[in-house]
Amino acid sequence: MVFPFFIYLCAEGTLQINYMITRKIYRSLLFLLMGIIFAGCTNRSEKSVSNPITYSNPLSIAFGDPFILSAADGKYYMYGTGGTAKGFVAYSSDNLVDWQPEGEVYSGNQPDSWTVKNYWAPEVYETNGKYYMFFSADWKENPTGELENFRIGVAVADKPTGPFLEISDKPLLDPGYPIIDANILQHGGKTYLYYSRCCYKHPVESEVAQWAREQNLYKEIEESWVYGVEISDDFTVVIGEPVLLLQPPTTMDDPQTEWESRSVTAGEVNRRWTEGSFAFPYEGKIYMMYSANFFGGEHYAVGYAVSDDPLGPFVKAANNPVLEKNTGKGGEVTGTGHNMIFWSKNDQKMYAVYHGRTRQTGDERVVFIDEVQIDDQGLLTVDGPTTTEKEL
Question: Residue 45 belongs to what H/E stretch?
């Protein structure tokens, strides 16, 4: 220590005064040192608390049908419709806000490919160290010249950024009609594929179709329906027959009819869609979100249904739609649809990623991310569409 050593060197007559002075110096040095240590600890503590991450919709990604994979490497990867003519591109992010382009990850219309054009709605799943992409495209085999000849295929890669290569030279299944929007659920030791039958050449009689004829709008109304079927865990074989799970309501007094028929009642198109399904388990139930109305119009919206079993029956929720345009409430977003659900890395928050349009983006589809809540009664809500800044 400083002051005992100083006392020893001093003469006896000056011992007391120098002791007092040196003691003050020692105390000052001690307090100064403690202050430096405390300040350092405080700074380290402040640095350890990261600033909240904020963002605002829409993201600067022009995708339709967006899908986000939370991969084993700790990053998020986004896939969607658009970005390249014959295939799919991807983006990566560490925080869901700053997205980096990864380029084309799948190229279709190759010599050994079953595809030819119209590449839609990719979804990527990580299994046993591999990455599997499910997607829709027009099938080369088209002897009758159908205008819509969509089927679903699978491609595989060693990395989330590809390159994804098709696992077969033919689609995963051919039900005899065009299908799109593949979605996978692995639950209870089994794997399930969900898809949408296209509206193409699928007229359906209903009270809505009758109303459309009476109004001299359309002679018939075509519909798309959601099906589910079990498939093998390696995504190569269909097990059993597809089961019809969701379709537009048939009566005018059904609570779901109004919002699911807006494209028809607005005179936009003679079709009613049930498409873009996404199924996930929650608290012992299977939730299936789906989109209705014309994907290219303002009325595109999202609802959900709930079941005890992956293959139904599914019951549509009373609070549908849970995501729709907000222009009637002073907002600027329309065409909200084809969503999927993912969790934050810490599993604390559930989010919906979907596409929509704004006045600034016009007809171009852009990506939105909004938080999803499910309350104690099982009621699902989406905090969107939003365009204001908020925390993730």
Answer: helix 15-48
Q: What is the number of domains present in the chain?
A: 2
Supply the pLDDT for residue 89: 98
Say yes or no: 162 and 250 in one domain.
yes
Question: What is the per-residue pLDDT for 347?
Answer: 79
| Site of tokens 């549908």 | 320
On whether both 384 and 329 belong to a single domain, the answer is yes
How far apart are the C-alpha atoms of 296 and 309, rounded to whole Å? 32
User: What digits encode the pLDDT tens for the residues 261-275?
Assistant: 999 999 999 999 999
pTM of the model: 0.87
- Residues 185 and 135 placed together within one structural domain of the fold: yes
Expressed as residue numbers, the domain containing 13 is: 2-48
* Residue closest to 247 by CA, chosen among 274, 221, 222, 229: 274
322-337 per-position pLDDT tens digit = 999 999 999 999 999 9
Is residue 330 domain-shared with residue 216, that is, in the same domain? yes
Q: Cα separation of 22 and 26, whole Å?
A: 6
CATH classification at residue 62: 2.115.10.20
Bridge partners (DSSP) of residue 88 are: 106
Residue 51 pLDDT grade (very low, low, confident, very high; cuts 50, 70, 90): confident
